[in-house]
Automatic annotation (TrEMBL):
Signal peptide: none
Pfam families recorded: PhoU
Biological process according to GO: intracellular phosphate ion homeostasis; negative regulation of phosphate metabolic process
Start and end residues of each PhoU domain: 24-108
Source species of the chain: Mycoplasma crocodyli (strain ATCC 51981 / MP145)
Organism ancestry: Bacteria, Bacillati, Mycoplasmatota, Mollicutes, Mycoplasmataceae
Protein's name according to its UniProt entry: Putative phosphate uptake regulator PhoU
Length: 228
């Protein structure tokens, strides 16, 4: 096994992975732009949905190529433990990124299904997507600069804070339910799935952080996850 060649191939795999990470962030930025826009402009909304669908198709393509590259890396190089952990971390994270992009598409399709979207719903998506953008950028920079251990505890706290905010939004929806307005209730129930997609997006970004902690700390999943 040529060590220098192995490290170079790891570098290429990491670079391609980071580009996929950027792609997932850009999809959620687009969702934020969409929900900040004027929903009375149906043509513009349709253009947003079409662009998100196109990016989701691209995501599936990137996912397939990256996964094949990672599998080929293992079969060709038969890497030892520390290098194998790196590839496993990449493979696990590729699946997280694919789900993150799926969630963005589902949030876009909520508008396509519902002609009437309240100001509360629009503002909620913008607020939570803004939180997701900050959260994902923090993890992206940590991965890029090999500093995942430095941000781990803060990112865990950020994800827990996001979950509390998510629950508060659910309570707000519950209070909006009107037993006399089935149409409104249907939209509210549908919006609950949007909130869940946002919550799961944070979970997947957190998974990626933990995957890269695992690369440097093999016993991470068999001990307390809090890093002192």
């Amino acid at each position: 096994m040529n060590y220098d060649l192995l490290k170079e191939e790891e570098k290429i795999l990491k670079s391609d992975f980071m580009k996929y990470f950027e792609h997932s962030i850009s999809m959620h930025k687009l969702i934020k732009e969409m929900y900040k826009s004027d929903f009375s402009n149906e043509k513009k909304c349709e253009e947003f949905v079409e662009e998100v669908n196109s990016l989701e198709t691209k995501s599936n393509h990137i996912h397939a190529i990256l996964l094949e590259d990672a599998v080929w890396f293992i079969s060709k190089e038969t890497p030892k433990a520390n290098h194998l952990r790196f590839v496993i971390g990449i493979i696990n994270s590729i699946f997280d990124l694919e789900r993150i992009c799926d969630h963005a598409q589902r949030i876009a399709l909520f508008k396509a299904r519902n002609k009437t979207v309240s100001i509360f719903m629009k503002e909620t998506v913008v607020e939570l997507e803004n939180n997701i953008e900050n959260f994902s950028n923090k993890i992206y920079e940590a991965l890029l600069n090999f500093k995942v251990m430095n941000v781990y505890n803060q990112c865990i706290k950020d994800s827990e804070d996001f979950f509390l905010n998510y629950k508060n939004k659910l309570y707000s929806i519950y209070n909006e339910i009107d037993s006399m307005d089935k149409s409104k209730n249907g939209t509210l129930i549908d919006f609950v799935t949007v909130l869940k997609n946002l919550d799961r997006t944070v979970d997947h970004f957190r998974n990626i952080l933990e995957n890269f902690v695992f690369i440097n700390n093999p016993d991470f999943f068999v001990r307390n996850k809090k890093i002192d």
